[in-house]
Design a protein that fits this description.
2 copies of one chain form a homodimer.
Chain A: H1 6-25, E1 30-31, H2 33-40, H3 44-54, E2 64-65, H4 66-77, E3 83-88, H5 92-103, E4 108-115, E5 124-125, E6 128-132, H6 136-143, E7 147-150, H7 154-166, E8 171-174, E9 187-190, H8 193-205
Parallel strand pairs in A: 3-4, 3-7, 4-6, 7-8, 8-9
Antiparallel strand pairs in A: 1-2, 5-6
The first copy, chain A, binds a DNA duplex (22 and 22 nucleotides) through helix 3.
Amino acid sequence: MSKISKKIVERLIIYRRCLIRSSVNSNNTHIFSHQLAKKSGASSAQVRRDIMGLGYSGSPAYGYEIKSLVDSIGKFIDPVKREKIAIIGLGNLGKAIVDYFNKQSLEMEIVAAFDTNPEKVNRVLMGCKSYHIKEMKSIIKEYDIQTAILCIPSINAQEVTDELIESGIKGILNYAPINLNVPLNIYVENLDMIAIFEKVSYFARKNNK
Amino acid sequence: MSKISKKIVERLIIYRRCLIRSSVNSNNTHIFSHQLAKKSGASSAQVRRDIMGLGYSGSPAYGYEIKSLVDSIGKFIDPVKREKIAIIGLGNLGKAIVDYFNKQSLEMEIVAAFDTNPEKVNRVLMGCKSYHIKEMKSIIKEYDIQTAILCIPSINAQEVTDELIESGIKGILNYAPINLNVPLNIYVENLDMIAIFEKVSYFARKNNK
DNA sequence: TACTGTGAACTCCTTCACAGCG
DNA sequence: CGCTGTGAAGGAGTTCACAGTA
Protein backbone atom coordinates (compact mmCIF):
# COMPACT_ATOMS: atom_id res chain seq x y z
CA MET A 1 0.00 0.00 0.00
CA SER A 2 2.83 2.41 0.70
CA LYS A 3 4.78 2.19 -2.57
CA ILE A 4 2.90 4.98 -4.29
CA SER A 5 5.25 7.31 -6.11
CA LYS A 6 5.06 11.06 -6.47
CA LYS A 7 3.86 10.74 -10.05
CA ILE A 8 1.03 8.41 -9.07
CA VAL A 9 -0.10 10.73 -6.28
CA GLU A 10 -0.17 13.62 -8.76
CA ARG A 11 -2.35 11.64 -11.12
CA LEU A 12 -4.70 10.30 -8.45
CA ILE A 13 -5.41 13.88 -7.42
CA ILE A 14 -6.23 14.75 -11.03
CA TYR A 15 -8.36 11.62 -11.49
CA ARG A 16 -10.42 12.52 -8.48
CA ARG A 17 -11.05 15.99 -9.80
CA CYS A 18 -12.18 14.53 -13.14
CA LEU A 19 -14.40 11.95 -11.47
CA ILE A 20 -16.14 14.51 -9.31
CA ARG A 21 -16.65 16.81 -12.25
CA SER A 22 -18.07 14.05 -14.42
CA SER A 23 -20.44 12.81 -11.73
CA VAL A 24 -21.78 16.34 -11.39
CA ASN A 25 -22.09 16.94 -15.13
CA SER A 26 -23.72 13.66 -16.07
CA ASN A 27 -25.65 11.05 -14.21
CA ASN A 28 -23.36 8.19 -15.09
CA THR A 29 -22.47 6.16 -12.06
CA HIS A 30 -19.59 4.29 -13.70
CA ILE A 31 -16.61 5.15 -15.88
CA PHE A 32 -14.16 3.12 -18.00
CA SER A 33 -10.42 3.54 -17.80
CA HIS A 34 -10.23 4.95 -21.32
CA GLN A 35 -12.84 7.58 -20.48
CA LEU A 36 -11.02 8.70 -17.37
CA ALA A 37 -7.80 8.66 -19.39
CA LYS A 38 -9.27 11.04 -21.95
CA LYS A 39 -10.50 13.44 -19.28
CA SER A 40 -7.29 13.42 -17.27
CA GLY A 41 -4.70 13.34 -20.02
CA ALA A 42 -3.21 10.00 -18.94
CA SER A 43 -3.22 6.71 -20.88
CA SER A 44 -5.79 4.05 -20.10
CA ALA A 45 -3.12 1.56 -19.03
CA GLN A 46 -1.79 4.17 -16.63
CA VAL A 47 -5.22 4.78 -15.18
CA ARG A 48 -5.69 1.07 -14.56
CA ARG A 49 -2.24 0.70 -13.02
CA ASP A 50 -2.63 3.71 -10.75
CA ILE A 51 -6.01 2.52 -9.52
CA MET A 52 -4.57 -0.95 -9.02
CA GLY A 53 -2.02 0.66 -6.68
CA LEU A 54 -4.90 1.89 -4.51
CA GLY A 55 -6.15 -1.65 -4.10
CA TYR A 56 -9.43 -0.62 -5.70
CA SER A 57 -11.12 -2.86 -8.27
CA GLY A 58 -13.48 -2.14 -11.12
CA SER A 59 -15.59 -4.52 -13.13
CA PRO A 60 -14.89 -5.49 -16.73
CA ALA A 61 -18.55 -5.04 -17.53
CA TYR A 62 -19.21 -1.59 -16.04
CA GLY A 63 -15.77 -0.10 -15.38
CA TYR A 64 -15.17 1.77 -12.11
CA GLU A 65 -17.95 2.94 -9.84
CA ILE A 66 -17.33 6.68 -9.62
CA LYS A 67 -18.51 7.35 -6.10
CA SER A 68 -16.60 4.57 -4.41
CA LEU A 69 -13.47 5.27 -6.44
CA VAL A 70 -13.57 8.91 -5.31
CA ASP A 71 -13.86 7.64 -1.74
CA SER A 72 -10.93 5.28 -2.21
CA ILE A 73 -8.73 8.05 -3.57
CA GLY A 74 -9.83 10.34 -0.75
CA LYS A 75 -9.07 7.73 1.87
CA PHE A 76 -5.63 7.46 0.43
CA ILE A 77 -4.83 11.13 -0.25
CA ASP A 78 -6.79 13.23 2.21
CA PRO A 79 -5.86 14.30 5.70
CA VAL A 80 -8.06 12.99 8.49
CA LYS A 81 -9.15 16.45 9.52
CA ARG A 82 -9.56 19.69 7.62
CA GLU A 83 -6.16 21.01 6.58
CA LYS A 84 -5.02 24.38 7.89
CA ILE A 85 -2.48 26.22 5.76
CA ALA A 86 -0.23 29.23 6.41
CA ILE A 87 0.97 31.60 3.72
CA ILE A 88 4.06 33.77 4.04
CA GLY A 89 4.14 36.93 1.97
CA LEU A 90 1.11 39.05 1.09
CA GLY A 91 2.31 40.67 -2.11
CA ASN A 92 0.02 40.55 -5.12
CA LEU A 93 0.76 36.90 -5.73
CA GLY A 94 0.24 35.92 -2.11
CA LYS A 95 -3.06 37.74 -1.93
CA ALA A 96 -4.23 36.18 -5.20
CA ILE A 97 -3.37 32.73 -3.88
CA VAL A 98 -5.32 33.25 -0.66
CA ASP A 99 -8.28 34.40 -2.69
CA TYR A 100 -7.97 31.53 -5.16
CA PHE A 101 -7.65 28.82 -2.51
CA ASN A 102 -10.27 30.01 -0.09
CA LYS A 103 -12.86 30.71 -2.76
CA GLN A 104 -13.17 27.02 -3.48
CA SER A 105 -14.70 24.95 -0.77
CA LEU A 106 -11.98 22.42 -0.27
CA GLU A 107 -10.94 20.22 2.58
CA MET A 108 -8.23 22.81 3.21
CA GLU A 109 -8.06 26.48 4.02
CA ILE A 110 -5.42 29.16 4.33
CA VAL A 111 -6.08 30.32 7.88
CA ALA A 112 -3.08 32.54 8.62
CA ALA A 113 -0.94 34.90 6.56
CA PHE A 114 2.33 36.56 7.54
CA ASP A 115 4.13 39.61 6.23
CA THR A 116 6.67 42.15 7.43
CA ASN A 117 4.80 45.15 6.09
CA PRO A 118 2.85 46.78 8.98
CA GLU A 119 0.15 47.88 6.54
CA LYS A 120 -0.61 44.30 5.63
CA VAL A 121 -1.01 42.84 9.10
CA ASN A 122 -4.11 42.55 11.27
CA ARG A 123 -6.44 42.28 8.33
CA VAL A 124 -8.77 39.56 7.13
CA LEU A 125 -8.97 38.34 3.52
CA MET A 126 -11.33 35.52 2.57
CA GLY A 127 -11.37 34.22 6.13
CA CYS A 128 -7.61 34.41 6.46
CA LYS A 129 -6.18 36.61 9.23
CA SER A 130 -2.84 38.33 8.63
CA TYR A 131 -0.10 38.74 11.23
CA HIS A 132 3.36 40.22 11.49
CA ILE A 133 5.98 37.64 10.67
CA LYS A 134 7.48 37.88 14.15
CA GLU A 135 4.33 36.14 15.43
CA MET A 136 4.72 33.33 12.92
CA LYS A 137 6.19 30.68 15.16
CA SER A 138 3.60 31.05 17.90
CA ILE A 139 0.60 31.25 15.57
CA ILE A 140 1.68 28.21 13.54
CA LYS A 141 2.08 26.20 16.71
CA GLU A 142 -1.19 27.44 18.13
CA TYR A 143 -3.17 26.47 15.02
CA ASP A 144 -1.12 23.27 14.58
CA ILE A 145 -0.41 24.10 10.93
CA GLN A 146 1.59 21.48 9.02
CA THR A 147 2.00 23.05 5.58
CA ALA A 148 2.93 26.49 4.29
CA ILE A 149 2.96 28.42 1.05
CA LEU A 150 6.01 30.61 0.60
CA CYS A 151 5.51 33.74 -1.53
CA ILE A 152 8.37 36.00 -0.55
CA PRO A 153 11.48 37.27 -2.34
CA SER A 154 14.25 34.70 -2.82
CA ILE A 155 16.62 36.69 -0.65
CA ASN A 156 14.60 35.95 2.51
CA ALA A 157 13.35 32.51 1.57
CA GLN A 158 15.96 30.34 3.29
CA GLU A 159 15.83 32.28 6.52
CA VAL A 160 12.03 32.09 6.70
CA THR A 161 12.14 28.40 5.76
CA ASP A 162 14.40 27.69 8.72
CA GLU A 163 11.89 29.41 11.00
CA LEU A 164 9.00 27.50 9.44
CA ILE A 165 10.74 24.23 10.17
CA GLU A 166 11.42 25.29 13.74
CA SER A 167 7.71 26.05 14.00
CA GLY A 168 6.86 22.48 13.07
CA ILE A 169 5.96 22.87 9.37
CA LYS A 170 6.38 19.60 7.43
CA GLY A 171 5.64 20.67 3.86
CA ILE A 172 6.34 23.84 1.88
CA LEU A 173 5.01 24.99 -1.47
CA ASN A 174 7.75 27.40 -2.51
CA TYR A 175 7.02 30.09 -5.10
CA ALA A 176 10.40 31.76 -4.62
CA PRO A 177 12.80 30.88 -7.44
CA ILE A 178 15.48 29.37 -5.21
CA ASN A 179 16.40 25.93 -3.96
CA LEU A 180 15.71 25.60 -0.23
CA ASN A 181 17.94 23.54 2.03
CA VAL A 182 15.79 21.48 4.37
CA PRO A 183 16.10 18.25 6.37
CA LEU A 184 15.11 15.01 4.63
CA ASN A 185 11.80 14.68 6.47
CA ILE A 186 10.52 18.02 5.17
CA TYR A 187 8.81 18.02 1.78
CA VAL A 188 9.41 21.00 -0.50
CA GLU A 189 7.74 21.56 -3.83
CA ASN A 190 9.24 24.35 -5.91
CA LEU A 191 6.84 26.23 -8.13
CA ASP A 192 8.93 28.65 -10.14
CA MET A 193 6.39 30.30 -12.43
CA ILE A 194 9.00 32.06 -14.53
CA ALA A 195 11.01 28.87 -15.08
CA ILE A 196 7.85 26.98 -16.02
CA PHE A 197 6.94 29.66 -18.51
CA GLU A 198 10.43 29.58 -20.03
CA LYS A 199 9.90 25.87 -20.59
CA VAL A 200 6.55 26.47 -22.30
CA SER A 201 8.16 29.08 -24.51
CA TYR A 202 10.99 26.71 -25.44
CA PHE A 203 8.73 23.84 -26.43
CA ALA A 204 6.31 26.17 -28.19
CA ARG A 205 9.16 27.30 -30.43
CA LYS A 206 10.23 23.71 -31.02
CA ASN A 207 6.63 22.78 -31.88
CA ASN A 208 6.48 20.46 -28.90
CA LYS A 209 9.32 18.25 -30.20
CA MET B 1 22.00 18.53 -30.23
CA SER B 2 18.27 17.99 -30.44
CA LYS B 3 17.84 15.11 -27.98
CA ILE B 4 17.29 17.32 -24.98
CA SER B 5 14.40 16.07 -22.88
CA LYS B 6 11.82 18.06 -20.98
CA LYS B 7 13.53 17.27 -17.69
CA ILE B 8 16.88 18.51 -18.93
CA VAL B 9 15.35 21.76 -20.24
CA GLU B 10 13.76 22.33 -16.83
CA ARG B 11 17.09 21.92 -15.10
CA LEU B 12 19.07 24.02 -17.57
CA ILE B 13 16.69 26.89 -16.86
CA ILE B 14 17.30 26.49 -13.14
CA TYR B 15 21.07 26.18 -13.58
CA ARG B 16 21.16 29.42 -15.49
CA ARG B 17 19.28 31.21 -12.77
CA CYS B 18 21.71 29.87 -10.17
CA LEU B 19 24.74 30.80 -12.26
CA ILE B 20 23.56 34.36 -12.81
CA ARG B 21 22.78 34.76 -9.14
CA SER B 22 26.14 33.42 -8.07
CA SER B 23 28.08 35.61 -10.49
CA VAL B 24 26.27 38.63 -9.08
CA ASN B 25 26.74 37.66 -5.44
CA SER B 26 30.41 36.69 -5.61
CA ASN B 27 33.23 37.46 -7.94
CA ASN B 28 34.01 33.89 -8.79
CA THR B 29 34.34 33.37 -12.51
CA HIS B 30 34.18 29.58 -12.36
CA ILE B 31 32.05 26.94 -10.67
CA PHE B 32 32.37 23.18 -10.11
CA SER B 33 29.58 20.74 -10.84
CA HIS B 34 29.11 19.92 -7.16
CA GLN B 35 28.70 23.62 -6.33
CA LEU B 36 26.09 24.14 -9.00
CA ALA B 37 24.43 20.92 -7.85
CA LYS B 38 24.12 22.26 -4.32
CA LYS B 39 22.64 25.55 -5.48
CA SER B 40 20.17 23.98 -7.90
CA GLY B 41 19.09 20.90 -5.99
CA ALA B 42 20.38 18.45 -8.62
CA SER B 43 23.18 15.89 -8.23
CA SER B 44 26.65 16.66 -9.50
CA ALA B 45 26.55 13.80 -12.02
CA GLN B 46 23.31 15.22 -13.34
CA VAL B 47 24.78 18.68 -13.70
CA ARG B 48 27.71 17.29 -15.68
CA ARG B 49 25.48 15.17 -17.89
CA ASP B 50 23.05 18.01 -18.60
CA ILE B 51 25.88 20.36 -19.51
CA MET B 52 27.42 17.64 -21.67
CA GLY B 53 24.14 17.62 -23.62
CA LEU B 54 24.66 21.27 -24.46
CA GLY B 55 28.01 20.45 -26.04
CA TYR B 56 29.67 22.76 -23.52
CA SER B 57 32.93 21.73 -21.82
CA GLY B 58 34.45 22.70 -18.50
CA SER B 59 37.97 22.12 -17.27
CA PRO B 60 38.91 19.61 -14.59
CA ALA B 61 41.11 22.22 -12.99
CA TYR B 62 38.71 25.16 -12.75
CA GLY B 63 35.26 23.72 -13.42
CA TYR B 64 32.86 25.63 -15.68
CA GLU B 65 33.36 29.26 -16.69
CA ILE B 66 30.16 30.88 -15.48
CA LYS B 67 29.74 33.58 -18.11
CA SER B 68 30.22 31.36 -21.14
CA LEU B 69 28.07 28.60 -19.66
CA VAL B 70 25.24 31.09 -19.15
CA ASP B 71 25.67 32.09 -22.80
CA SER B 72 25.59 28.48 -23.93
CA ILE B 73 22.40 27.79 -22.02
CA GLY B 74 20.88 31.01 -23.38
CA LYS B 75 21.81 30.11 -26.94
CA PHE B 76 20.05 26.82 -26.43
CA ILE B 77 16.96 27.95 -24.50
CA ASP B 78 16.21 31.52 -25.44
CA PRO B 79 14.13 32.83 -28.32
CA VAL B 80 15.98 34.87 -30.92
CA LYS B 81 13.94 37.96 -30.20
CA ARG B 82 12.19 39.23 -27.12
CA GLU B 83 9.21 37.03 -26.30
CA LYS B 84 5.74 38.55 -26.30
CA ILE B 85 3.15 36.82 -24.15
CA ALA B 86 -0.65 37.05 -23.93
CA ILE B 87 -2.65 36.36 -20.80
CA ILE B 88 -6.30 35.39 -20.82
CA GLY B 89 -8.27 36.22 -17.69
CA LEU B 90 -7.69 39.22 -15.45
CA GLY B 91 -9.05 37.91 -12.19
CA ASN B 92 -6.91 38.31 -9.09
CA LEU B 93 -4.58 35.54 -10.19
CA GLY B 94 -4.21 36.86 -13.72
CA LYS B 95 -3.45 40.36 -12.48
CA ALA B 96 -0.91 39.04 -9.97
CA ILE B 97 0.82 37.06 -12.72
CA VAL B 98 1.07 40.09 -15.01
CA ASP B 99 2.56 42.06 -12.14
CA TYR B 100 4.94 39.26 -11.17
CA PHE B 101 6.21 38.63 -14.71
CA ASN B 102 6.57 42.18 -15.87
CA LYS B 103 8.26 43.40 -12.70
CA GLN B 104 11.30 41.32 -13.52
CA SER B 105 13.30 42.45 -16.49
CA LEU B 106 13.29 39.28 -18.48
CA GLU B 107 13.67 38.48 -22.14
CA MET B 108 9.90 38.14 -22.15
CA GLU B 109 6.93 40.34 -21.39
CA ILE B 110 3.18 39.98 -21.11
CA VAL B 111 2.06 42.54 -23.66
CA ALA B 112 -1.66 41.84 -24.01
CA ALA B 113 -4.40 40.72 -21.62
CA PHE B 114 -7.92 39.61 -22.46
CA ASP B 115 -11.07 39.43 -20.39
CA THR B 116 -14.82 39.39 -20.91
CA ASN B 117 -15.56 41.87 -18.15
CA PRO B 118 -16.03 45.36 -19.68
CA GLU B 119 -14.62 46.96 -16.53
CA LYS B 120 -11.33 45.20 -17.02
CA VAL B 121 -10.66 46.11 -20.63
CA ASN B 122 -8.85 49.12 -22.09
CA ARG B 123 -6.58 49.48 -19.14
CA VAL B 124 -2.82 49.24 -18.71
CA LEU B 125 -1.12 47.24 -15.95
CA MET B 126 2.68 47.03 -15.79
CA GLY B 127 2.99 47.82 -19.48
CA CYS B 128 0.32 45.30 -20.44
CA LYS B 129 -2.75 46.58 -22.29
CA SER B 130 -6.07 44.83 -21.71
CA TYR B 131 -8.65 44.09 -24.40
CA HIS B 132 -12.04 42.46 -24.68
CA ILE B 133 -11.70 38.80 -25.53
CA LYS B 134 -13.52 39.26 -28.84
CA GLU B 135 -10.45 41.15 -30.05
CA MET B 136 -8.15 38.31 -29.05
CA LYS B 137 -7.59 36.72 -32.42
CA SER B 138 -6.69 39.93 -34.21
CA ILE B 139 -4.44 41.29 -31.46
CA ILE B 140 -2.51 38.02 -31.09
CA LYS B 141 -1.91 37.93 -34.81
CA GLU B 142 -0.98 41.59 -34.93
CA TYR B 143 1.64 41.23 -32.16
CA ASP B 144 2.74 37.82 -33.48
CA ILE B 145 2.37 36.26 -30.03
CA GLN B 146 3.36 32.59 -29.78
CA THR B 147 2.60 31.74 -26.14
CA ALA B 148 -0.27 32.39 -23.79
CA ILE B 149 -1.08 32.09 -20.11
CA LEU B 150 -4.59 30.86 -19.41
CA CYS B 151 -6.15 32.05 -16.13
CA ILE B 152 -9.87 31.57 -16.64
CA PRO B 153 -12.48 29.26 -15.12
CA SER B 154 -12.30 25.63 -16.29
CA ILE B 155 -15.70 25.86 -17.88
CA ASN B 156 -14.49 28.24 -20.60
CA ALA B 157 -10.96 26.89 -20.93
CA GLN B 158 -11.38 24.50 -23.86
CA GLU B 159 -13.35 26.97 -25.94
CA VAL B 160 -10.78 29.74 -25.43
CA THR B 161 -7.95 27.27 -26.10
CA ASP B 162 -9.47 26.43 -29.47
CA GLU B 163 -9.55 30.13 -30.33
CA LEU B 164 -5.97 30.59 -29.16
CA ILE B 165 -4.84 27.83 -31.48
CA GLU B 166 -6.74 29.37 -34.36
CA SER B 167 -4.94 32.61 -33.57
CA GLY B 168 -1.57 30.91 -34.02
CA ILE B 169 -0.57 30.27 -30.41
CA LYS B 170 1.95 27.41 -30.07
CA GLY B 171 2.33 27.08 -26.31
CA ILE B 172 -0.07 27.46 -23.38
CA LEU B 173 0.58 27.70 -19.66
CA ASN B 174 -2.77 26.57 -18.30
CA TYR B 175 -3.76 27.51 -14.74
CA ALA B 176 -7.29 26.13 -15.14
CA PRO B 177 -7.67 22.74 -13.44
CA ILE B 178 -8.72 20.87 -16.56
CA ASN B 179 -7.03 18.84 -19.29
CA LEU B 180 -7.06 20.68 -22.60
CA ASN B 181 -7.43 18.86 -25.90
CA VAL B 182 -4.98 20.26 -28.42
CA PRO B 183 -3.19 19.09 -31.58
CA LEU B 184 0.16 17.36 -31.17
CA ASN B 185 2.20 20.35 -32.30
CA ILE B 186 0.86 22.57 -29.51
CA TYR B 187 2.62 22.45 -26.15
CA VAL B 188 0.47 22.69 -23.02
CA GLU B 189 1.80 22.84 -19.49
CA ASN B 190 -0.82 22.44 -16.79
CA LEU B 191 -0.22 24.31 -13.57
CA ASP B 192 -2.98 23.29 -11.20
CA MET B 193 -2.10 25.10 -7.99
CA ILE B 194 -4.67 23.28 -5.90
CA ALA B 195 -3.53 19.86 -7.11
CA ILE B 196 0.09 20.76 -6.42
CA PHE B 197 -0.80 21.87 -2.94
CA GLU B 198 -2.69 18.65 -2.30
CA LYS B 199 0.48 16.79 -3.19
CA VAL B 200 2.54 18.90 -0.78
CA SER B 201 0.01 18.22 1.93
CA TYR B 202 0.10 14.48 1.25
CA PHE B 203 3.88 14.18 1.39
CA ALA B 204 4.08 16.50 4.39
CA ARG B 205 1.83 14.09 6.29
CA LYS B 206 3.90 11.12 5.14
CA ASN B 207 7.10 12.92 6.22
CA ASN B 208 8.31 13.01 2.64
CA LYS B 209 8.31 9.18 2.38
C1' DT C 1 -17.55 -8.77 -26.95
C1' DA C 2 -15.03 -5.12 -24.50
C1' DC C 3 -13.44 -4.44 -20.44
C1' DT C 4 -10.09 -5.02 -16.13
C1' DG C 5 -5.82 -6.53 -13.89
C1' DT C 6 -1.17 -7.47 -14.53
C1' DG C 7 3.42 -9.88 -15.88
C1' DA C 8 6.77 -8.63 -19.02
C1' DA C 9 9.01 -5.59 -22.14
C1' DC C 10 10.47 -1.35 -23.04
C1' DT C 11 11.89 3.44 -22.66
C1' DC C 12 13.55 7.10 -20.10
C1' DC C 13 16.19 9.02 -16.31
C1' DT C 14 19.66 8.85 -12.71
C1' DT C 15 23.64 7.30 -10.52
C1' DC C 16 27.95 4.75 -10.42
C1' DA C 17 32.54 4.50 -11.21
C1' DC C 18 36.57 5.34 -13.46
C1' DA C 19 39.82 6.84 -17.35
C1' DG C 20 41.96 10.97 -18.60
C1' DC C 21 43.68 15.33 -17.54
C1' DG C 22 45.79 19.76 -15.71
C1' DC D 1 45.34 14.87 -6.17
C1' DG D 2 40.20 16.35 -7.50
C1' DC D 3 37.96 17.51 -11.21
C1' DT D 4 35.33 16.55 -15.91
C1' DG D 5 33.26 13.55 -19.37
C1' DT D 6 31.08 9.37 -20.15
C1' DG D 7 30.18 4.12 -20.80
C1' DA D 8 27.67 1.11 -18.31
C1' DA D 9 24.65 -0.27 -14.65
C1' DG D 10 20.68 0.47 -12.18
C1' DG D 11 16.11 2.23 -11.17
C1' DA D 12 11.71 4.39 -12.23
C1' DG D 13 7.87 5.06 -15.09
C1' DT D 14 5.15 3.69 -19.11
C1' DT D 15 3.20 0.79 -22.46
C1' DC D 16 2.26 -3.73 -24.45
C1' DA D 17 -0.40 -7.52 -24.76
C1' DC D 18 -3.20 -10.95 -23.18
C1' DA D 19 -5.54 -14.11 -19.74
C1' DG D 20 -9.56 -13.79 -17.12
C1' DT D 21 -14.22 -12.26 -16.63
C1' DA D 22 -19.08 -10.74 -16.80
